[in-house]
């Protein structure tokens, strides 16, 4: 009987140790996040007097980039300038703003504050909705 009791205690201790070790296991690594600038110097881009800038950071070797630029182009208006920043022609801006993945689209206000961003290929609806919401927020700041 004593042996049975000792065995039961050892099993309980082993289970408790296993549970503690399981809880201490680190979380699995997360997917990498790509850097997106928080602020743009509007002097680096055309249309500095236009309230909104949609900067599309691209690469000529990126097949997805052309689609993002095609989706962003119709956003251009008297209130919104859309500018492609291709790494082959403007590597200085890619370095300055720490762009390490393309396509990267950022929406900046008149002061250059990045108010929205997309890394990868957003849908046209996402772009239109995001820009409309930002412009509405600016129009009614409450």
How would you summarize this macromolecular structure in one to three sentences?
By secondary structure, the chain is of the alpha+beta class. The protein has helices spanning 2-24, 63-72, 91-96, 124-139, and strands spanning 52-58, 80-86, 104-108, 114-119. It has a domain at 42-139: Glutaredoxin.
Which terms would index this structure?
39% helix, elongated, 142 residues, alpha+beta, Glutaredoxin, four-stranded mixed sheet, 18% strand, 4 strands
Structural write-up:
This protein has helices at 2-24, 63-72, 91-96, 124-139, and strands at 52-58, 80-86, 104-108, 114-119. A four-stranded mixed beta sheet has the order 2-1-3-4. The longest helix has 23 residues, at 2-24. The protein has a domain at 42-139: Glutaredoxin (3-Layer(aba) Sandwich), CATH 3.40.30.10. The chain is 39% helix and 18% strand. It is built from four helices and four strands; from the N terminus they run H-E-H-E-H-E-E-H. Strand 3 and strand 4 form a beta hairpin. The mean pLDDT is 89. The protein starts with a helix and ends with a helix. The protein has 142 residues and is of the alpha+beta class. The relative contact order is 0.17.
Q: What is the count of helical runs?
A: 4
Give the radius of gyration.
25 Å
Strand arrangement, major sheet: 2-1-3-4
Q: SSE order, as H and E?
A: HEHEHEEH
The fold-level CATH name of the domain at 42-139 is Glutaredoxin
Give the assembly state of these chains: single chain
Output the CATH class name of the domain at 42-139.
Alpha Beta
> Are there runs of 5+ residues with pLDDT below 50, and where?
none
Class of secondary structure makeup: alpha+beta
Strand content: 15-25%
Q: Strand count, sense and closure of the main sheet?
A: 4 strands, mixed
Q: Which outline best applies?
A: elongated
């Amino acid at each position: 009987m004593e042996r049975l009791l000792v065995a039961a205690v050892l099993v309980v201790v082993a289970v408790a140790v296993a549970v503690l070790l399981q809880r201490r296991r680190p979380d699995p690594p997360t997917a990498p996040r790509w850097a997106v600038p928080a602020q743009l110097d509007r002097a680096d881009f055309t249309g500095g007097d236009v309230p909104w800038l949609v900067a599309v950071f691209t690469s000529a070797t990126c097949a997805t980039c052309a689609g993002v630029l095609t989706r962003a182009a119709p956003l251009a208006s008297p209130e919104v300038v859309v500018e492609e920043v291709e790494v082959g022609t403007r590597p200085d801006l890619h370095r300055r703003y720490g762009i390490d993945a393309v396509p990267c689209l950022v929406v900046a206000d008149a002061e250059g504050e990045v108010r929205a961003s997309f890394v990868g290929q957003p849908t046209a609806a996402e772009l239109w909705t995001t820009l409309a919401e930002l412009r509405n927020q600016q129009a009614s700041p409450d």
